[in-house]
Amino acid sequence: MSDVDTGVIAVTGAGGRVGRLVAARLSDRGVAPRLLARNPARLPDLPGTVKAPAAEYGDRAGMRAALDGADALLLVSAHESPARVAEHRAAVDAAVAAGVGRIVYLSFQGAGPDATFTLARDHWHTEQYIRAQDGLGFTFLRDGWYLAGIPAMTGSDGILRGPAGNGRVAAVAHEDVADVAAAVLLAPGEHDGATYDVTGGEAFTLAEAAEELSRATGRTIRYLPETRDEAYASRAGSGAPDWQVEAWVTSYEAIGRGELGAVSDTVPRLTGHTPMTLRDFLAEHPRSCAHLTG
C-alpha cells in the first residue's frame, strides 16, 4: 500500500498506452485510480481501480461527472486533431469545476508558440491555459519522440525517411514516461509548478537509429534524408489531411533544427533507474519491427 495520502487520482486515456501503464503502476502501489476513456470497454482490469463512465474531453458535462470528487488528474493529451486545444481546455474546465486540485499534463519537448513541430504549439497553448487557472496545481511532463515511433515510421521497404538531416532525437520509452508520471502523481505537492523534459538517456541521429533497426531485424535499414519538398511529396499519397502531413514533416524538421536532442535527467532523478535505450526497446518489443521482418 502507498504510505502517502494522494487523494483520488484520475487517469485519462487509460485505455491507451501511457495511461494504461500509469494506471498499472498506481495500482501496484496500492492506489486505486479512477480510469477515464472515451470507450470504457478498453479500460484495463486492475486491482482497486474504478472505471468512470465514458467521457470525451470536449464533453464538459461528461468530464465533470467523471471527475467529480477527484483530487488529481493525469491529463494525457488528446488524439491529434485541429480541435485538440479546444478539447484540452474543455477537459481543464471540467476538472476545475469538479474540484480537481492539480493536473499533471503530458506535454511535448520544446512546446512553444513558435515551435517547429506544429503540434508542439498545441501543447504550449494547453500549458498556458492550465497555468491561468487560479489555485490549480500543475506539473508539465514534456516527453519527446517515443522510441516506438522509430520502427513505426520506418517503411516496409526498409527506409526511414524525413527531413531531419543529422539532427539528434532523445526519444523515450512509454514505460519511462509512465514511471515519471506515476512518481509525480504519488508525490502530491512536491512537483507543483514544475516543467520536466522526459527523455531517453541518449540522443541519436536517424542514421544511427537505422543501424539499430538493421541489427535488430537482420536486414539493411537505411535513413533517407529528405528536403521539405521531398518530404511532402513522399507523403502525398497517404490520404492524410494537410494538417496531419504538416505535423509529420515538421516533427522531422524539429529534429534537424536541434529542438528534440537535449537529454534530461528526469527519468533517473524521479524514478531511480536509467531510461530505456533504442536497443533495449527493440529487444523488449520485437513486434514493433514485424513489418520490417515479414
Structural account:
The protein has 294 residues and is of the alpha/beta class. Helices cover 39% and strands 14% of the residues. The protein is built from twelve helices and eleven strands. The chain has a seven-stranded parallel β-sheet with strand order 3-2-1-4-5-6-9, sandwiched between helices.
Summarize the topology.
Blueprint: E1 9-11, H1 17-28, E2 34-35, E3 50-51, H2 60-67, E4 72-75, H3 84-97, E5 102-108, H4 118-131, E6 137-143, H5 149-152, E7 159-162, E8 168-169, H6 174-185, E9 195-198, E10 204-205, H7 206-217, E11 222-225, H8 228-234, H9 242-256, H10 266-271, H11 278-284, H12 290-293
Parallel strand pairs: 1-2, 1-4, 2-3, 4-5, 5-6, 6-9, 7-11
Antiparallel strand pairs: 8-10
Tag the structure with descriptive keywords.
14% strand; 294 residues; two-stranded parallel sheet; 39% helix; alpha/beta; seven-stranded parallel β-sheet
